[in-house]
Amino acid sequence: MGTSSEVPDIVVGRLPIYLRALTVLEAQGQEIASSHELGQRLGISSAQIRKDLSHFGEFGKQGTGYNVDYLRRQLQRILKVESELEVALIGAGDLGHALAHYDGLNKRGFRITAIFDSDPAKQGEKPCACVIQDTANMAQILREKGYKIAVIAVPAEAAQEVADTCVEAGVKVLLNYAPITLSVPAEIQVQQIDPVVHLQRMTYYL
Amino acid sequence: MGTSSEVPDIVVGRLPIYLRALTVLEAQGQEIASSHELGQRLGISSAQIRKDLSHFGEFGKQGTGYNVDYLRRQLQRILKVESELEVALIGAGDLGHALAHYDGLNKRGFRITAIFDSDPAKQGEKPCACVIQDTANMAQILREKGYKIAVIAVPAEAAQEVADTCVEAGVKVLLNYAPITLSVPAEIQVQQIDPVVHLQRMTYYL
User: Do A191 and B201 count as a contact with CB atoms less than 8 A apart?
Assistant: First the structure.
């Protein structure tokens, strides 16, 4: 990974925000954007944006702004979403269905190509281009197809076991919607989405 | 707010995680938990947990661990979720429906008591205890009922206008699921949930 392994995680965390903003600007037909303009859109200082991007090279000349299309493609490359990445979704409840229907994933580098649920009543349903399969077959399918990314949308009680199975099957990136803290090996990337955690950290300030 | 206004935001952000873990421990019948045990569950050092909690008082005696029920109730008080808080949900698409059905909100301090959607075909539906109402009536209802918390689950194009309406109507806390960065006054709390941002900050490491 060269120097990129030294980039602070908090900087990496802002890159997808920059990429999202650049994608919007490009869709609007804008060709050049200054760090100042990006910063105003994102509530981030222009100095911070320039410093973050400088970890990865030289993307613009002083005073001329960034070429929107070029910087967008560079960020896609850095974030490994130049070509579409396949995602396995585990859990086909309300949230799983919402994720399966969500076209925002496809547009931004990810495609759900396998869905698993332990409920026989759901197996065989087709909420998107793929059919819901039995969780019992998950380990084999994840391994055979070489899935590196999984989204966990099962109840809290089932989430750790699902995560363990994913990791054993070679998954490296887990997005966890279950409201528990997963225990995984250090080399596995985990992020959690728990709306209650987000709400409570804000209600503190009420 | 006294000294609490000086607590770093990153510390505030960990409190809901501690509260969640304590709620699980209590449901399992555990009465006492050490910072070491909590830390192991959460992947956070015990020193960090003790330091975080020390911002808010003295919750345990050296060597005896925390009283699970007491600490849980204190964190609920600190995070203002002792009694249920009412939440307005804007957007009744797939994600809005999933949120309306999600009992994890109710169990942890929040109840969706108003839902709005601009689609006449959805208005009148009842995905939970409340009926989907016309977004055109949102400002008036938010203001009259005094909503302080709103969840935005509308498409990106509509999100800024919805946020503006919420803020004008007195909402102080916004949880935004739309994939754009909202522009709001500094005194408004905003958090965003965008699964693609979470995925991309992990695929960087692939």
Answer: yes
Does residue A186 sit at the B interface (CB-CB below 8 Å)?
no
Question: pLDDT tens digit string along A116-158?
Answer: 999 999 999 999 889 999 999 999 999 999 999 999 999 999 9
Same domain as A45, residue A10: yes
| Residue of chain A nearest B15, judged by CA positions | A201
Helices B9-27 & B46-54 angle (0-180, nearest 10) = 110
Q: From CA B110, how far away is CA B57, in angstroms rounded?
A: 26
* Cross-chain Cβ contact B183/A105 below 8 Å: no
CATH number of the domain to which B21 belongs: 1.10.10.10
Domain count, chain A: 2
State which of B78, B112, B140 marks the end of a domain.
B78
Residue B59 lies in a domain: yes
Nearest of B161, B151, B165 to residue B95 by alpha carbon: B151
Is A88 in a helix, a strand, or coil?
strand
A92 and A192 share a domain?
A: yes
DSSP class per residue in B146-190: T--EEEE-S-HHHHHHHHHHHHHTT--EEEE-SSS-----TTSEE
Determine contact, residues B60/B66, Cβ cutoff 8 Å.
Answer: yes
Tell me the shortest Cα–Cα distance from A107 to chain B, in angstroms: 10
Phi, psi at residue B108, to the nearest 5°? Answer: -120, 25
Check A198 against B189: CB less than 8 A apart.
no
CB interface of A with B, residues 2-61, below 8 Å: 9, 12-13, 15-17, 19-21, 24, 41-43
Nearest-neighbour CA in chain A from B181: distance (Å): 6
Interface probe, candidates A89, A177, A198, chain B, greatest B C-beta count within 10 A: A198
- What is the ipTM score, two decimals? 0.94
Q: Are residues A187 and A102 in the same domain?
A: yes
Q: What is the model's pTM? A: 0.93
Residue A168: domain span: 85-198
Residues A27 and A11 in one domain: yes
pLDDT in tens, B137-168: 999 999 999 999 999 999 999 999 999 999 99
